[in-house]
Amino acid sequence: MRLKILLLPGDGVGAEVTSAAVEVLQSVAARFGHDLEFSEGLIGGVAIQKTGSPLPEDTLNKAAAADATLLGAVGAPDFDSLPPEKRPEKGLLGIRKALGVYANLRPVKAWPSLIGSSPLKNEVVAGTDLLIVRELTGGLYYGQPRGFEGERAINTMSYSRAEIERIARKAFELARGRRKKVTSVDKSNVLENSQLWRRVVTGVSRDYPDVSLDHLLVDTCAMQLVLNPRRFDVLVMENMFGDILSDEAAVLAGSIGMLPSASVGDGKGFYEPVHGSAPDIAGQNKANPFGAIGSAAAMLDYSFGLAKEARAIEEAIGHVLDSGRVTADLKPSHPVGTSDVAKEVCKAVASGQGTGAGV
């Protein structure tokens, strides 16, 4: 296959982790006989500095022309004092909306070799394998009206029945390929928005009699994620709840740098590691690239249907994790750099090494 991929390195460590993911994609292409066609665009703080906009029209055009987009990270402290519509994160929200990627998939696995990296007890973390399905183009981050009225600020959480139904169906379909359990997360004891959410998800569940459904309030879910994460299979939730809880779930994987994500809808996919731009370590070859590399694997799977190639990357990740040649955030005895991890994964992909250690 010829794979047309737009790269958006973005800000902070984004360039480093994106470069690592590209190296791994090139290794996969060489092993399996695919052709890669990369283009590159600007987004976030670097786009503001060079064009005055966090999401230039040129980037949107390149995303439309590509088969899939891989992002590094967005955000820079230089812009923290700006109003929301002028900050780097506005570019990320904008491209998600433009591509129509309404479902953000965030898998969280406890790799056996990393159980000791989590601050939680080993017996709590071991065996964790869950998928957070986050609604991505609605809720507080997009709702209108929003803004400032003098010393009063307004944000609106808004969802339609259609928006809730399509993300719920995505969760149930994914659960059918896993352990057939969906947990819907809301705040229906307080929010009318969540009351509609619960009613619609319950209605959708009737079309999936082979998949079990339970409901949890968001605060209870936050507690259960660190008390008993093995109880979860697929979790579905609105935009802000998904943003917060998926970051909390990073402690189960040992580091937020481990978490990949896939944003999908009815068209082209958008892929990014869950971590932020980490400006404090940018340019120092310290960033954990596994989230970006895992996002590249998800891209091969969801956008190109290359399941075997995606599994090759995942197995290579497991092999490298077992070797202990990982970045400092995973607390190895002898940490290595971002570029070293990329080289190790590439070698494992090229040689077909892997452990299948994800559980």
Helix content: 40-55%
User: Which residue ranges are poorly predicted, with pLDDT under 50 across at least 5 consecutive positions?
Assistant: 355-359
What distance separates the N and C termini? 30 Å
Order of helices and strands: EHEHHEHEHEEEHEHEHEHEEHHH
The amount of beta strand, in percent, is: 15-25%
Number of strands: 12
Query: What would CATH call the homologous superfamily of the largest domain?
Result: Isopropylmalate Dehydrogenase
CATH topology description of the largest domain: Isopropylmalate Dehydrogenase
Shape: globular
Query: Number of helical segments?
Result: 12
Strand order of the largest sheet: 2-1-3-12-11-4-5-10-8-9
**Major sheet size, sense and barrel closure:** 10 strands, mixed
Average pLDDT rating: 95
Computed over alpha carbons, the radius of gyration is: 20 Å
Counted up, domains total 2
CATH secondary-structure class of the largest domain:
Alpha Beta
Oligomer: single chain
For the record, the CATH architecture of the largest domain stands as 3-Layer(aba) Sandwich
Structural class: alpha/beta
Structure, described:
There is one protein chain. The protein is of the alpha/beta class and 359 residues long. It has two domains: 1-105 and 256-359, 3-Layer(aba) Sandwich (Isopropylmalate Dehydrogenase), CATH 3.40.718.10; 119-253, Isopropylmalate Dehydrogenase (3-Layer(aba) Sandwich), CATH 3.40.718. 42% of the residues lie in helices and 18% in strands. It contains twelve helices and twelve strands. The chain has helices at residues 14-32, 45-51, 57-65, 89-99, 122-125, 161-176, 192-205, 218-227, 239-253, 290-302, 307-323, 338-351; strands at 2-10, 35-40, 68-73, 103-109, 129-135, 147-149, 152-154, 181-186, 212-217, 234-237, 262-264, 269-271. The strands form two sheets. Strands 2-1-3-12-11-4-5-10-8-9 form a ten-stranded mixed β-sheet, sandwiched between helices. Strands 6-7 form a two-stranded antiparallel ribbon. A hairpin with a 2-residue loop joins strand 6 (147-149) and strand 7. Helix 6 (161-176) crosses helix 7, helix 8 (218-227) runs parallel beside helix 9 (239-253) and helix 11 packs across helix 12. The model is unreliable at 355-359 (pLDDT under 50).
